[in-house]
Amino acid sequence: MTELEAPEHGNVPPGAPHDSMLSETVSYVVGLGLALLLTGVSFWVASTSSLWGPGVATGLVVLAIAQMGVHLVFFLHITSGPDNTNNVLALAFGVLIVFLVMIGTIWIMGHMNANMGVNPQMMNLQTQRG
Amino acid sequence: MTSGTEAPAIGLTHMGSEDTGLGNRGPQSKSIVVPYGFWLFVLSDMVLFSALFATYASLVHATDGGPVASQLFDRTTVAIETLALLVSSFICGIAVIAAKRRNMFWTQTALFLTGFFGFVFLVLELTEFGHMISIGAPPQRSAFLSSFFTLVGCHGAHVTCGLLWLGTMMAQIWAKGFQQHIMRRLLCFSIFWHALDIIWVAIFTIVYLIGTLP
Description:
The complex is a heterodimer of chains A (130) and B (214).
Chain A: H1 21-47, H2 53-75, H3 85-115, H4 120-123
Helix pairs in contact in A: 1-2
Chain B: H1 30-59, H2 69-72, H3 75-100, H4 104-134, H5 143-176, H6 180-209
Helix pairs in contact in B: 1-5, 1-6, 3-4, 3-6, 4-5, 5-6
C-alpha cells in the first residue's frame, strides 16, 4: 500500500486524489466549468445596468461565496463524508475567524467613522494620508 | 470509541472499520498528517488575508482627494488575470492526477502550464501596479492605495513564492521521481495553489468588481 492511498486510513487530507482517474478528472472539469460560469456571471452582474443597483454588491458577494464553495468541493475535495471531518472542522473554525475579523472590523470602524466626526476636518478618514 | 479493550494507542494501525478518523487509534500516517497540517497553515493564511480585507474595506473611501477605485481599475485586465489563475489552478489539479499515476511527461507538462499561467497572472498584476504608480497612484498617495497595495500585493507575493515552490517541485520530481515524500510536497503545493485562487475570488469581487460599481 502506498502512502497516498489514503481512504483506507479512514481519513483523507484536503486535495487528495480520488481512486478513480475518471471521477477525479470529471471533478476538476465540473469545478472549472462551474467556476467559469460563476466568474462570468459576476463580471456580467457588475457590468449590466438591467439589475437593481443597490442589490448588485450583495449579489456579487453571494456569487463569490458560491465560487469559493465550488473551489473547496471540486478542487480541494472538501466533502461532508466521515473521512473529511477534520478538514471540515478546521475549515469551519477558519471561516468563523475570517467572518469575525471582517464583519467585526467593518462594523466597528464604520460606526467609529460615523460617530466620531466632531470636527469633520480632523476626524474624517478622507483627510488621513497613508 | 466504544471499544472496551483499548490497547495502548500509540503505534497501533488504524485500519479498523469502526475508525472514525478522530484519533482514537493512534496517529495517522504522514501522508494524512502533513497535508492536514498544511491545510491548517492555509486556513491561518486566510485569516491573515481577512485582516487585510478588513483594512481595505475600512479605508477604501479614504482617498485623500486622490484617485478612487473606479478611476484606476480596468475590468478587462482583471478578467484575464482571473482566467489565468483559474486555469492555472485547474491544471495544477491535473498535475496531481498525473503524478499519482507516475506519469512523468504529463506531470511535468501540467506543472509547467500551471507555472506558465501563474506567471501570466503575475506579469499582468505587476504591469497594473507599474501603471498605477506611473499615473500618480503609488501606495503612499492615500490610505486607500496603501491598503490596496498591501492586500493585492500580499496575494501577488504568495503567487511569487508559489512559482518558486513550483519550480522546486518540478526539479525534485524530475531528479527523485514519485517518492512518497515528494508526493506529499506536491499535494501541499496543490493545496496552496488552490487556496490562492480562492483568495483571488474574494479580491476580484470585493476590490475590482464592487470597487468599480457605478
